[in-house]
Amino acid sequence: METLITTAFLMTFLLWSYSVLSRNFLHETTPSGSKKSQANKQNRAILGLKLLSATIVLFLGCYAFAHFMVPAPPETTERTSNIPGTKVINHKHDGKDGPTLEGPFPFMQDKNKDIQIIPPHLIKTYFTDVAGLAEAKDEVQDIIQYLRDPEEFGRLGAKAPKGILLHGEPGTGKTLLARAMAGEADVAFIAVAGSQFDEEFVGVGAARVRKLFDVARENAPCIVFIDEIDALAHKRHAQDPSWSAQSVNQLLAEMDGIDDQKNAGIIIISASNRIDAIDPAVLRPGRLDRHIRLELPTLKDREQIVQIYLDKVKIDKSVSANKIAKITPGFSSAEIANLVNEAAIIATKQGKGAISMPDFDTAKDRIVIGAKRESMNISAQSRKNTAYHEAGHAIVGHKLNAERYPIYKVTIGQRGPSLGHTAFEPNLDEGSATFNELEALIATQLAGRAAEELIFGEQNITTGAENDLKNATRLAHNMVTRWGYSKRVGPMYIGNNDKFLSQELIEQEVQAILSRNYQRAKAVLIENSDTLDAVAAALLEHETIDAKQFKNIVDKK
Ligand code: ADP
Ligand code: ZN
Predict the structure, then answer these.
(1) Ligand 1 — pocket residues by CB below 6 A?
(2) How far apart are CA 292 and CA 178, in angstroms?
(3) How far is the CA of 419 from the centre of ligand 2 (A)?
(4) Distance between CA atoms of residues 232 and 168, nearest Å
(5) What is the model's pTM?
(6) Is 102 known to be catalytic?
(7) What is the pLDDT of residues 334-346, one digit of tens each?
C-alpha cells in the first residue's frame, strides 16, 4: 500500500514537470500558424502515443524505485508520547486484521510502571469475541454510545456516565470486556494495574494517578482500564499513616473532575475480584457507582467459549463443544481457553494428528488439580443432588404459589458459593402477604430438602439447605411474633421483646409451622414425582431451564 502511494506521488511529480517542459517545447517548435493544422494533428497523435508509453515506463520505474528504496515500516513501533514516562506501543499483528482474540494481554503482566496506550485502530477486540456475558454487554451500551459521540449524547442534557466496576472471579473476562468496549466504541484503551500505584515513596502513587489522567485527557475519548482497583483503592484503616491515602484521594479528585468539559470523553472501567476490599468512597454514587458482576459462564456460555477456542485447533470427530462444556462446570473462560491448549499439548506429545475427547479429560484433571477449586470438580452425585433439590423448590413453588411467585428460571450452575438456584419472578409488593401465601412460601423453601429426602433417603440429605432453613425459620418466626398467625399466641405483636411470652412457646409455634409445611412440601412432591424426575433430568441435561421450558415439562406430566 505504502509503495503504491509513493509511486503515485513520484509519477505525478514527474508528469507535471514533463508537461511543463513539453509545453515550452511545443511553443517553440510550432508557433501559432494556421496552414499547418494537418501536420499539427499528426504531431499530436504521435505525441499522445509517446506520452502513453512514457507514462507506462515511468510508472514501472517509479514502482521499482519506491519498492526497493523506501523501507517498509517496522512491524511493531514504539514512540514516546508527549507525556514523559509514557509510551505508545503499536502492536501490528500478523495480517491486516490481526487476531480477533488475544491471550492474556502482555502489557498487563509488564512489571514496568509505564502507562500503556493502545490507539483505536489497533484494537481488534469486539463484542463478538466475548462469549456469553449478554447482560453485561447490555448494561454498557450507553457508555459505548457516549464514547462514540460525547456531544450527541449530551445534547438533551443527559449526564455522561463516569465508569463502572466489573467484579468477578479471575478469568471471567473483565479485561476482555473492557477492551471490547474500546473496540466497539473505536476509542483508545489505556490500561494500568492497581499495583502500579504502590507507594514506594510518599506521593509517588498520587503523582502516577495524576499522570494517568493527563494521558487520558490527551487521548480522549478513551477508556481507562484500572485492573485490581482494590490494590490502588483499598479500604482505609484508622491506624494507616495519613499519606497512605494520597493515591486514593487523587483518584477521587480526578474522578470528580470528570464532569468538567475539559475531561469529556473519559470512561473509567475498573476491575476487581474483591469488591469488599475497595474503599467505599470510590464506589459511592457519582463515582464508580455502576457495578457489574461477571459470573462464571453457564453451560450455554461455556459451549460458545469452547467453540471459539476449538476453531483454532485440530480436533477429531469424538470432540464437540457441547461435550466439553458439560465436563467443565465451575470453569472460568480463561480456564476453558487453558483447557483447550492443554489438550492440544497432550495430543501433540503423543504424536496424534488431532485432539480427541480423552485428551480433554486428561487436561481437565490437570487443571482441576492445579486450581484446587472444589466447585470445578462437582461429582456426578452432587450434581444429581442439586438437580433434585432445585426441582423440588420449583415444583412446590409452582403448585402452591404460582400466581404470587411465578418461576423465572431454575439452574444448577454455580453462582458464587451456592450450588444451585431457583428464581421466582419478584412480583410482590413486599408489604402485604396473606397467611396462605406465607405458608406456601415456607413450603417452597423447605421443598429442596424434602426432595432430597424423598429421592436419596434421610441418611443422604446434604447440608445444601442451610440457607433455605434460615429463610423459612425467619419467616415462621415473624408469623408468630409479628403478624399474629399463631393460635396459641394470639393476635399479639412480640417482636424481639422476650418479656411478653416464654421463648419456649414461640419456638414450639415456629416449629409447628415449619414441620407442617415440610410435610406439605413432601406431599406435593410425592404426588408429582414424575414431574420431579423430569425437571431434575432437564436440569442435568441443560443446567439451566427458563420459565417456558419448566412449564412445558409440568404441563406434559
Ligand atoms: P479477567 O480480567 O476477568 O481476569 P480476562 O479478561 O483477562 O479475565 O480473561 C483471560 C482470557 O480468558 C482472555 O484473554 C480470553 O482469552 C479468555 N476469556 C475470558 N472471558 C472470555 C469470554 N467471555 N469469551 C471468550 N474468551 C474469554
Ligand atoms: Zn434450596
Answers:
(1) 101, 103-104, 130-133, 170-176, 271, 305, 308, 333-334, 337
(2) 12
(3) 9
(4) 17
(5) 0.62
(6) no
(7) 999 999 999 999 9
Which DSSP symbol is given to 95? T
Task: Assign 533 to helix, strand or coil.
Answer: helix
Please write the tens of the pLDDT for every residue from 79-117.
444 443 444 444 333 333 322 223 333 333 333 456 888
Instruction: Find the helix or strand (DSSP H, E) in which 390 lies.
Output: helix 380-401
What are the percentages of helix, strand and coil residues in the chain, rounded to 5? Answer: 60, 10, 30
- The secondary structure element, H or E, covering residue 163 is strand 163-167
Among protein residues, the one with the nearest Cα to ligand 1's atom 6 is 173
DSSP tag of 92: P
Strands of the 188-193 sheet, one edge to the other = 77-80, 87-90, 116-118, 188-193, 222-227, 266-272, 163-167, 290-293
Q: How many CA atoms lie within 13 A of 53 on its CB side?
A: 5
Using most ligand atoms within 8 A of CB, pick from 126, 127, 333 the residue to mutate for ligand 1. 333
pLDDT 10s digits, 391-446 = 999 999 999 987 777 888 888 876 554 566 777 655 445 567 889 989 999 999 99
**Which ligand is closest to the CA of 447, given by its number?**
2
Ligand nearest to the backbone CA of 411: 2
Around Cβ 175, how many Cβ atoms within 10 Å? 22
Contact yes or no for 413/490 (Cβ under 8 A): no
Give the Cα-Cα-Cα angle 163, 167, 173 (nearest 5 degrees): 95
pLDDT digits (tens, 9 = 90+) for 12-68: 666 666 666 556 555 544 444 455 556 666 777 777 777 677 667 666 765 666 665
Instruction: Kindly give the pairing relationship between strand 116-118 and strand 163-167.
Output: unpaired
**What are 286's three cell numbers?**
457519582
The residues that bridge with 77 in the sheet, in sequence order, are 90
Q: Give strand pairing partners of 116.
A: 87, 191
